[in-house]
Amino acid sequence: MWSEKYRPKSIFYMIGNEEGRSKIIAWIKNWKKGSKPLLIVGPPGTGKTTSIKALVNDFNLFVLELNASDVRTKEKLDATLRNVEPVNLFGQRVIVFLDEIDGMYSKGDSGGINYLQEWLPRSNVPVIMAANEMKDFMKDIAKTSLIIDWKKVPSREIFLWLKNIAEKEKLRINDEQIKNIIYESSGDIRYAVNQLQVAQESIVFKDIKYTAEDAIKNAMYAKNFMDAYHYISNWQDDPDAKISAIAATLFYNQPIDLDLRSRWLSEADLLLGRIKKYQEWRMLRYFNVFLTATIYNVRGNYNQYIIPFPVIQESYKRQIYRALLENLKKDLHFDIGFIAAEIIPFYELLVRLKRINDDNVKKILE
After folding, report:
1. What's the number of CA atoms in the CB half-sphere (13 Å) around residue 270?
2. Taking 60 as the threshold, does the pLDDT of residue 366 lie above it?
3. Which of 108, 183, 219, 244 might form a disulfide with 228, Cβ 3.0–4.6 angstroms?
4. Confidence (pTM)
5. Strand spans (E) along 34-155
6. Residue 306: predicted pLDDT
7. Would you tell me how many other CB atoms lie within 10 Å of the CB of residue 206?
């Protein structure tokens, strides 16, 4: 991905947030035990993580990087942080980077944030935290931290950055197309660079919209990942329907790397849950990346139905199963495809648990 290829290796070569970068440099130069931790707050894709990785390169540091939304319980944090030493075996100064701490809190694991509040004041290494936005549960940590407000990179600077990359890649793209990318990215430079790569892969810059079948078929046989991403990201459907359709196609084709692709699909589902919970709809672009990874290069046939129990595959065209679908359609007012994919599995479960009595379903299960 070009976002990695052109990720600045030095904090001095980054664009945007000059004041914030100056504060980070001054902070690491002057840090001593008892100094406040650093808390960088700003939109995704604007260089928060890149600034820390660049800082590590510039000052020859060793970074212990944790995604706080994954390692968020008291037990996990304690196991990782309690034995951190100021210098590693190679003589490098150690810093701790806790990314996405705004995704840390939930009712079931609030112990993690409490642990951090206790651990940060007694840490013997520099600690940098990053968040996409300031949440209420972060206020106590914010009071004892040096806060840097990280802003979106100005459009004019993104333009010059993309123009430079386009020239290095000998990409035939005009200024108007670059401006369209910048407008779509909404200040997310990582997304903008990746979209520039889409142009390199000969995707036509038009507002093309695809149906589920067209998007999945094209993504399965796309010549490269970025082409596949184009089809999935321009597929006009709600996210839950996208997951269902891709799951149906994936499990129908049973690729040899099904376990890996299933994990990508699971990641997409988890991200969607977070998007809904925190209303972070701008993260849908990364949701589409996970879906693309799930279906790209499967090279099979599109399928719109998830068949949850094998016997239905044999019984699908039987009159009894068709009658069941038609009856449910009449009662529920959903289309048959949705009933087969979403309602039948739950209906079957209720029959197995003897919560409802349906002779038709019993016959199918037999």
Report:
1. 10
2. no
3. 219
4. 0.57
5. 38-41, 61-67, 93-99, 127-131, 146-149
6. 56
7. 7
Which pLDDT does position 107 carry in this prediction? Answer: 46
Query: Which pLDDT band, with edges at 50, 70 and 90, does 314 fall under?
Result: very low
d(CA 15, CA 164): 12
- Helix (H/G/I), strand (E/B), else coil: 129: strand
In this prediction, residues 120-149 reach a mean pLDDT of: 92
Q: What is the pLDDT of residue 129?
A: 94
Say if CB 104 and CB 69 are below 8 A apart.
Answer: yes
CA dist., res. 217 & res. 307, Å (int)? 19
pLDDT of residue 130: 93
Cα–Cα distance for residue pair 194/340, rounded to 1 Å: 37
Residue (of 291, 293, 275) closest to 283 by Cα position: 275
Say which residue, 72 or 131, is predicted with more confidence.
131
User: At CB < 8 A and 24+ separation, what contacts does 225-229 make?
Assistant: 225/292, 225/293, 225/296, 226/194, 226/197, 226/198, 226/200, 226/201, 227/198, 227/201, 227/202, 227/203, 228/292, 228/295, 228/296, 228/297, 229/198, 229/288, 229/289, 229/292, 229/296
User: Which one, of 2, 203, 41, lies nearest residue 130 by Cα?
Assistant: 41
**Contact in structure between 79 and 111 (CB atoms under 8 Å):** no
Question: Contact, 328 vs 339, CB < 8 A?
Answer: yes
d(C-alpha 177, C-alpha 199), whole Å = 9
Integer Cα distance of 55 and 58 in angstroms: 5
For 42-74, the pLDDT digits (tens) are 988 889 999 999 999 999 999 998 876 666 678
pLDDT per residue over 166-179, tens digit each?
Answer: 999 888 788 888 88
The residue extents of the domains of the chain are 2-149, 153-200, 206-304, 311-365
Q: Which CATH architecture has domain 2-149?
A: 3-Layer(aba) Sandwich (3.40)
Residue of 29, 151, 10 lying closest to 95 (CA atoms): 29
